[in-house]
Each structure stands twice: as structure tokens, then as C-alpha cells.
Design a protein that fits this description.
By secondary structure, this protein is of the alpha/beta class. Helix content is about 30%, strand content about 35%. It contains five helices and nine strands, in the order αββααβαββββαββ. It has a seven-stranded mixed sheet, with helices on both faces. Strand 5 and strand 6 form a beta hairpin. Helix 1 packs across helix 3 and helix 3 packs across helix 4.
Length: about 180
């Protein structure tokens, strides 16, 4: 949980100040918000984990699994799962997981993509939290939620570091609750 020495607001400010912006990346007209500086600075990384942990402990009495999206959800999800003493399940791009898998296709601006998870790692009625770094158009996150719905999981919430509100990706998630640390247009 959050240390007494730093308030939630101070931790949120540390996270906000650690995000680095790159104009015109990856293409002209895009302002890319880079979360990797959070990884370079242990206090900033800890602040993200503390903020998510505090929110979850105050919101949900029971969580069974943390599900992380390929690839940046893998950076934060396992650490958060460890804090709760629960398992972590990766949702990956098609063809990256061994053994039997379940998959879901979804549309991208430029074509189709597919995400998958290993079969039998998430059970019906398990209470899950989904985590990723960014909510932009919402396609990948919505596909991961569809995958979890296929197995009958109870999706409690999606945790996001950065939500790009102008892209309205939250609409693709329907009734699934989203908690984002930072929101930008």
C-alpha cells in the first residue's frame, strides 16, 4: 500500500512527471507519451504499483487473477499480482504462447489482429483485473475482455496508466469499468 511519506497525489504527480513526450512519433501529428521512464526510475515505478494497489484494495474485496496485455501489461501486472499473492495471466499476440490456446480476432485501423491466452488458466467466475499501459482506440483491450468473457471470467476492472480520452476507446469496452491514472486528449 502507499507509504505514509508520500501522498497519493504526490505519487500521481511523480508518475505524470515521469512520462516523456515525443512529438511526431511514430508518425507526423502524433504526440507519443512514453511510459519507459517509469521503468528507469524505481520511485516512479513503485508509485504506479502503489497507486494501483491502493485503488484495488479500496475497491475490490476479492481478486483472483491479474491479466496483462502484451507487452507493457507484462511489466506492471506480475508485480501487482505479487502484491496480492495471486496469479498473473498473459494475453499475447497470436502465435506467441505454447500449448492449447483460446483466441479472439479484432479490427485495427489497418487490418485484423488476434490475441490469445492459454486454455484453462482462467476459470469461469474468477474475479480478474486486466492491466495495460495505454487505452487509445480500445481494440486490444476490448479483445482481451472478449477472450475473458468467453471463459466466463468476472472482469472487475481494467487498469490503465494512460487513457487517451479523445480517441474514445472506452466505448469499445461497453460496461467494463476502467481506472486510468492519467488522462490526456
Amino acid at each position: 500500500m502507499c507509504s505514509e511519506s508520500q501522498s497519493l497525489e504526490e505519487k500521481l504527480q511523480l508518475v505524470r512527471n515521469s512520462i516523456k513526450c515525443y512529438p511526431d512519433f511514430p508518425i507526423q501529428g502524433i504526440l507519443f507519451r512514453d511510459i519507459f521512464p517509469l521503468l528507469y526510475h524505481p520511485k516512479a515505478f513503485s508509485a504506479v504499483i502503489d497507486l494501483f494497489e491502493d485503488h484495488l484494495r479500496n475497491t475490490f474485496p476479492q481478486i483472483d487473477l491479474i491479466v496483462g496485455l502484451d507487452a507493457r501489461g507484462f511489466l506492471f501486472g506480475p508485480v501487482l499480482a505479487q502484491k496480492f499473492g495471486i496469479g498473473f495471466v498473459p494475453v499475447r499476440k497470436k502465435g506467441k504462447l505454447p500449448g492449447p490456446t483460446l483466441s479472439v480476432s479484432y479490427s485495427l485501423e489497418y487490418g485484423q489482429a488476434e490475441v490469445e491466452m492459454q486454455r484453462d488458466v482462467v476459470q469461469a467466475n474468477q474475479k480478474v483485473i486486466v492491466i495495460d499501459d495505454l487505452l487509445a482506440t480500445g481494440g486490444t483491450l476490448a479483445a482481451a475482455c472478449e477472450l475473458l468473457n468467453k471463459v466466463g471470467a468476472d472482469i472487475l476492472e481494467c487498469l490503465i496508466i494512460i487513457e487517451m480520452t479523445a480517441l474514445n476507446g472506452i466505448k469499445k469496452l461497453g460496461s467494463v469499468s476502467v481506472h486510468s491514472l492519467l488522462q490526456y486528449n
